[in-house]
Write a structure and sequence with these properties.
Elements: E1 2-6, H1 11-22, E2 26-31, H2 39-49, E3 54-58, H3 64-71, E4 78-81, H4 90-93, H5 95-115, E5 121-126, H6 150-169, E6 173-178, E7 181-182, H7 191-201, E8 204-207, E9 214-215, E10 218-219, H8 220-231, E11 250-255, E12 261-262, H9 263-274, E13 279-282, H10 298-304, H11 312-327
Parallel strand pairs: 1-2, 1-4, 2-3, 4-5, 5-6, 6-11, 7-10, 8-13
Antiparallel strand pairs: 9-12
């Protein structure tokens, strides 16, 4: 089987490509290698993927003409659309980037899935769609029409567009609402990386909402298992109600660790893994952020058999070990 993976140079994208190739699938990876964060990190991820089963095209999937040209001579069976303009806070500073990448880009991939009659398209949504919801844990049946950031609004829009394509063209599509993914080769704009870098350097760690924050931290290996399992199980066009409420071939799942952890506990584990205490700089809540996230994963457990196995007590030391190795800095 050949899989088209967008955002192949990204954190989840790289790990997904590795897993797919490990089981014998060929992968066509696309990414525009933008400079939202360190481009060298993205290039180094791509270097990890080099091999006979991997083909890479540098292209901006928000540019439909360029995307069509890049894929014109390529055949693939399924699509995993992970590429997006990520980051809640950056969406406040640069909103147009989110509309271009997350709305136009998503539409362009759905058009490809539609015209090529792709067997299944899996796409990245986000736990951010739950916005200010105060019922825990977050359930895919909950209302998600009160986003607190433009990033969240674009992800909700992707879900709505997917529903319309599943209705109009019967394209099998599945959305995954990711919950705070971390692990080796992670993103420099995420808390795990920011905190590790600060602790090693003896610099203050920004702890927002004065530490009253909870996150459903999910290790990358568990996330990839869920993505692959979902990819292999396209929603049936049989009129039955799918996860998320659609009766079309469109399902939506939460994919998280099913354990919401206090931010302070996460920092405690980082301190133990690094062997150094953090300087905790307590700050107010950031605009667009939410106090807590917690995933109800019962739907993906039921339908896909997804079972996360990595608590943060095991996952965080793996990230710290990789971070030190990647930066060639064992002492900080």
């Amino acid at each position: 089987m050949t899989i088209l993976v967008t955002g192949a140079a990204g954190f989840i994208g790289m790990h997904l490509c590795q897993r797919l190739m490990a089981r014998g699938d060929a992968v066509i990876g696309i990414d525009n290698l933008n400079d939202y964060y360190d481009v060298d990190l993205k290039k180094n991820r791509l270097a990890e993927l080099a091999g006979d089963l991997f083909t890479f095209e540098k292209v901006d999937f928000a540019d439909h003409a360029a995307l069509d040209a890049a894929l014109a001579d390529k055949d693939f069976d399924r699509i995993v659309h992970l590429g997006a303009q990520a980051g809640v806070r950056y969406s406040i500073e640069n909103p147009r980037a989110y509309v271009e990448a997350n709305l136009m880009g998503h539409l362009n991939l759905m058009e490809i899935a539609r015209h090529r009659e792709t067997a299944h398209m899996v796409y990245a949504s986000s736990s951010s769609v739950y916005g200010g919801n105060d019922s825990f844990p977050f359930r895919v049946e909950d209302r998600v029409d009160r986003p607190v950031s433009l990033y969240a609004a674009t992800k909700k829009a992707d879900e709505l567009m997917s529903e319309s394509y599943a209705h109009l063209y019967r394209t099998p599509i599945t959305g995954l609402r990711f919950f705070t993914v971390y692990g080796p080769w992670g993103r420099p704009d995420m808390a795990m990386w920011i905190f590790t870098k600060a602790i090693l350097a003896g610099e203050p760690v920004p702890v927002f909402n004065h530490g009253d924050m909870r996150r459903d931290f999910t290790f990358i290996d568990d996330i990839v298992s869920g993505v692959v399992g979902t990819l292999d199980c396209p929603p049936a066009d049989d009129g039955s109600e799918k996860a998320g409420g659609s009766t079309k071939p469109h399902a939506i799942y939460n994919i998280g660790n099913n354990r919401s952890e206090q931010l302070g506990h996460m920092i405690d584990i980082l301190e133990d893994a690094i062997g150094k205490k953090a300087i905790r700089d307590l700050q107010p809540m950031q605009p667009g952020d939410v106090r807590a996230s917690a995933a109800d994963i019962s739907a993906i457990q039921r339908d896909i058999g997804f079972e996360p196995t990595t608590p943060i007590e095991e996952g965080i030391p793996q990230f710290v070990e990789w971070y030190r190795r990647y930066h060639g800095n064992q002492s900080g």
